[in-house]
Specification:
The chain is 38% helix and 10% strand. The chain is built from 7 helices and 2 strands; from the N terminus they run αααααβαβα. The protein has a two-stranded parallel ribbon with strand order 1-2. α6 links the parallel β1 (129-137) and β2 (156-163). The longest helix has 12 residues, at 141-152. The protein is globular, with a radius of gyration of 18 Å.
């Protein structure tokens, strides 16, 4: 088996259509369904979350719980799910699998950009803030782009920096 990382969506899609790869992840399901001879299978269990490394720094906006809550309210998870996986993903609200001992089902955060902006005002950021760089695994770039756009809509401005998995893991360990 040969595994290839193809960061760009269109290149990954083209490689699948040309027969250069047999399996590809993170493609728009509708594009694949319209391609004769291809099928979509929901087979990749995957958990994604945002981790605000600066939340432990009292000088960081992320230190304020209201800012982190605003970030949650700003994410339109259902639209992202429909756009990226044609609704095939299951939104669980937890990174702990439901079959694990001591699993707790946290309450869901509704998509509410108005409430998100209000929380930013209460936290002292009526015009939002520059949140710096959002690093992500290159395979999650499409998802990260959606998060960056959702946050930008409430005034939280970030620069996206996708990294190859090894570099991402190394960087995450260095920053933690």
């Amino acid at each position: 088996m040969v595994l290839r990382v193809i960061p760009d969506y269109t290149t990954r899609h083209a490689a699948l259509k040309r027969g250069e790869v047999d399996i590809a992840y993170f493609l728009a399901a509708e594009d694949i369904r319209r391609t004769p001879g291809f099928m979509v299978k929901a087979t990749l269990p995957s958990t994604h979350w945002l981790y605000f490394l600066d939340q432990w720094d009292p000088k960081s906006p992320w230190h304020d719980r209201r800012v982190r809550l605003a970030a949650n309210y700003a994410i339109d998870r259902h639209t992202i799910n429909r756009a990226l996986t044609r609704g095939l993903s299951r939104i669980t609200w937890s990174f702990v699998h439901s079959t694990f001992d001591l699993y707790w089902q946290p309450p869901p955060y509704p998509y509410d950009p108005t409430q998100a902006r209000q929380l930013l005002v209460e936290a002292g950021y009526p015009n939002g803030f520059d949140a710096g760089t959002l690093f992500c695994d290159v395979q999650a770039t499409t998802l990260a782009e959606a998060l960056v756009n959702d946050h930008k809509a409430i005034g939280v401005r970030t620069q996206l920096r996708p990294l190859e998995r090894a570099a991402f893991s190394t960087d995450l360990q260095r920053r933690s």
